[in-house]
Structures are given as C-alpha cells and as structure tokens.
Amino acid sequence: MTRPNPVLRLENIVKTFPGVRALDGVSFSVMPGEVHALMGENGAGKSTLMKVLGGIHQPDGGSIYMADEKVSMTGPLEAKAKGIVFIHQELSLAEELSVAENIYLGELPRRSFGRVDWATLYDNTNAILKKLNVGFDATRRVGDLSIANQQMVEIARALTVDAKAVIFDEPTASLTDAEKVVLFEVIADLQADGVGIVYISHRMEEIFKITDRVTILRDGQYQGTVNTADTTEEAVTQMMIGRKLDLSRNETTHDLGDVALEVRNLSCGALYRDVSFQVRRGEVVGFYGLVGAGRTEIAETLFGLRAPSGGEILLEGEAVTISSPADAIARGISLVPEDRKGQGLVLGMNCRDNMTLPQVGDIKTGPFVAEGAGIAIFDHYREKLDIRTPSWKQQVGHLSGGNQQKIVIAKWLSMHPNVLIVDEPTRGIDVGSKSEIHKLLRALAAQGYAVMVISSEMPEVLHVADRIVAMYSGQIMRTFTSDEVTEENLIQAISGLSAEKVA
C-alpha cells in the first residue's frame, strides 16, 4: 500500500530577525489524519514557524509543500485559501459583532445587491455551534461571552472551511474540562476526515492523550521527532530544555511564621460563601478547583476588586476593610492576575516602566519619573528573578511568556507586600519556565512571604504548596497538608464530595 503524502511539509526553514536567527533549518511535516504536537520552550521558534506557514513571515530559506506540491504563502488569506486554518491562543475576535459574524468574517453569505443573507448565516452558524455543544447561539454578541466561550468561537472557525490542516495553539488554556472533551471530539472528527492537525501545547497530559507524533524545537533548531507512544514526559522535557526537571512533591524545609492573612466566613453573593482559611509567613497555600469554584473571585475580593457580602478579612490579626486595590496595596496585598497580558502588563511599554507602574508616584522628581530610580528597581529584580531581556528598554510584548510573568511578579514584589496572591502563575508558559516560576514561589516563601497560589493544574499545586485548599461551587470542601494529599482525594474534593465522604 502506497503511503500518502504529507498534508503539509516544511523543509529546512530559516528565518532571521535583526540579531536573532529564530529558525535555523527547521523541518516539520503532518500526515493526513494525524495529530502532530509541536513543542518547545517559549522562544524556541514554534510561533515563528507557524507564522511562516501562515504567510505572516516570509522565510529566508527553505521550502513549504502541500500534498507534495511546492507552495509560497504570501499572506494569511492565501494560507486559508489553501486550506490551512489557525486557532490562535491570543483571541482575534471582534467583540462588538455577533458570534455568526465573527465565524464567517470576510465570507458572509450574500443575497442580491450584496445584502447579507442573515437567515443562512445564522442557520450555518447554529449548525456548527451544535457540534460544539455550547450554550449560546449565533446572534450572541461575542463581547458578552466568557473567555472560554470566546475560545470556542475561535475553534468554530475551523469548521467553516474545507481544511487540509488545522493548527491549534494552546487551545485549552481557557477551557473547562467539559469543553476540553468537546474539543478533543472535534479534533477526532477532523482526523476521521483526513485533516492534519498541528497541536501546540505545554500540557503534557494532553500531548500524550491525543497526539501521534511530537516534534521538539529548541533555540530555533530542530531537536527531533518521536512517536508519542514510544516516548515519555521526561524524555520530551529533556529534549525541550536540555536538562532534567525536579518534578517531586513539595516538602517544606523551613519554619513557618505568624499568620499574615486570615479569612473568616467570607462570602460574595452567589460566587462563594462561608470561606475561611489562613496563610502564614513562609507558607504557600494552593487553591485548587474546577472553573467556577470561586478561587479567582476570592483573590479579587482580597485585592479590593469585589465587595464581600459577609465575613471578615484579618491582616496580622487585625480586621480590615479593603474597598479598592489601593487599599489592598497600602495594606501589603499584591495580586498577580490570571491574564498577564490583558491585566498585568502594558505590552507596548518597556520592562522598567511596567515593573515600576504601581509606584510611579513614589519615584517622581517633580512632574517627571526619576529614570535612575526606575532602572535601579529593574536591575535589582532582573537579577533576583533571572529575567532574561537585553535591557530595561525592551518592550514587554517581545519577551517570552515566562519572562513576562516574572516582570508581573517583580512589579508586585517591588511593592514589598506581606501577602502575594498569584493566579494561574504558569498558564501558557513552557515547561522550563514553569519550573523556574515554581522555584521562585518556593524561594519567596522561604524568604518569609505569605503566598497564595491559584491553579487549575494539579501537578502545580502538589509541587509548590504546603497546604492545598480544595474548592467546589463556591465552598471549601477540604484543606490538605502536603503529606496527606493524594491525587485521588484531591479530585474527590473538587468534585463536590464532603470531607467525611473523602476521608
């Protein structure tokens, strides 16, 4: 039996930017009906390779083939016309338009005299949404949807064209577990139709669940391609970063201090109720649960973004009222938000200005910011957190995800908080940078910070937390110490079983 040609094949792709060789002779191919993972640390060249495939960047060398025919991608429209569809991690939706208009943007069905055929548009869109099992229809304004549902709209775009290859870039970063199941069913259907899938993700459990092969890049160079069934997570990680990672459970190796933060019977309407916990100096307390469990909402209340409907917040044993982020900052609470790009950074600003933004009023000389003071703060935390950037003048938007996250953490550490709250600290970050962030959080605790970590990744909370608060539907189901928690009892707790049933 003759083996089919790859759906697409990239051979010896070279791409150079001023001072940087982003791709150095990279080859990659996808077979019909195959799910092929593309992996590497942030900055390894994955995005650049896909931008070459999508016509956004023109290669300086190498060739692109589709079904063994050499092609030239002059732009995104040509790539789409050739059957290459991109599902981006960074949402590219028009929030003021409807779901239907976003999905068929640029290809709206027309009637006579160029009028939009709204009935056909909505019928076609609703048929696609039915396959995705979502809870909204074609007429819904995209800006009114949650981030997870907006991601489903992005995914729906792939079902509107005769795709030859679909590139999924971190597609599950904002999805619930139920939505992930639907996504994997969609991918299976595309496979059955002979579509080639490129799957870019840092989530190892997904890679080993749905992919057939894995290709690894490092520093713009091709490291190799392996069959998923024939490799291990440890082997893939070593190919990605060139070293072994410490994936062991956390064991506290320092003494804990006094209680820095205590919450008693805190409630916020229907979002969460009767929540009580403590965080001591030198301790990392992890909050784990499904989407909608109330974890982020608790953090937002502590930071003054939400008003509680009942209960108390105590700092150093003193009851306090926090009505705004300014109140929280003044009382020594800092929040590293879940959405670092949308809420934590100004991407067009340089590293120094992002890092000193909360204290710009304190480093002024008259009406001007004292440049030297800002640079001194940047230099201190650049060294302390090992932030990799050419200089303080670099735009934050040009940094890797891991270094962007370090800038956000440094911004709040420079305020010398008593309590540091970090929401989804490694979302969208490669495995090497993830390990560095974990070490950083543990080091901060060892220095006496009281640290709250909110995470949707079980290995993360198991690795960094001294205690884990398991939440379900706005309630704390159980609090585990690191020596008593197991994956089984943690899953049971976040699924709604009471402490008595779990025990």
UniProtKB/TrEMBL annotation:
<keyword id="KW-0614">Plasmid</keyword>
<dbReference type="GO" id="GO:0005886">
    <property type="term" value="C:plasma membrane"/>
</dbReference>
<feature type="domain" description="ABC transporter">
    <location>
        <begin position="254"/>
        <end position="498"/>
    </location>
</feature>
<keyword id="KW-0547">Nucleotide-binding</keyword>
<dbReference type="Pfam" id="PF00005">
    <property type="entry name" value="ABC_tran"/>
</dbReference>
<keyword id="KW-0762">Sugar transport</keyword>
<dbReference type="InterPro" id="IPR003439">
    <property type="entry name" value="ABC_transporter-like_ATP-bd"/>
</dbReference>
<protein>
    <submittedName>
        <fullName>Ribose ABC transporter ATP-binding protein</fullName>
    </submittedName>
</protein>
<dbReference type="GO" id="GO:0005524">
    <property type="term" value="F:ATP binding"/>
</dbReference>
<keyword id="KW-0813">Transport</keyword>
<dbReference type="InterPro" id="IPR050107">
    <property type="entry name" value="ABC_carbohydrate_import_ATPase"/>
</dbReference>
<keyword id="KW-1278">Translocase</keyword>
<keyword id="KW-0677">Repeat</keyword>
<dbReference type="InterPro" id="IPR003593">
    <property type="entry name" value="AAA+_ATPase"/>
</dbReference>
<keyword id="KW-0472">Membrane</keyword>
<dbReference type="GO" id="GO:0016887">
    <property type="term" value="F:ATP hydrolysis activity"/>
</dbReference>
<keyword id="KW-0067">ATP-binding</keyword>
<dbReference type="InterPro" id="IPR027417">
    <property type="entry name" value="P-loop_NTPase"/>
</dbReference>
<dbReference type="InterPro" id="IPR017871">
    <property type="entry name" value="ABC_transporter-like_CS"/>
</dbReference>
<keyword id="KW-1003">Cell membrane</keyword>
<feature type="domain" description="ABC transporter">
    <location>
        <begin position="8"/>
        <end position="244"/>
    </location>
</feature>
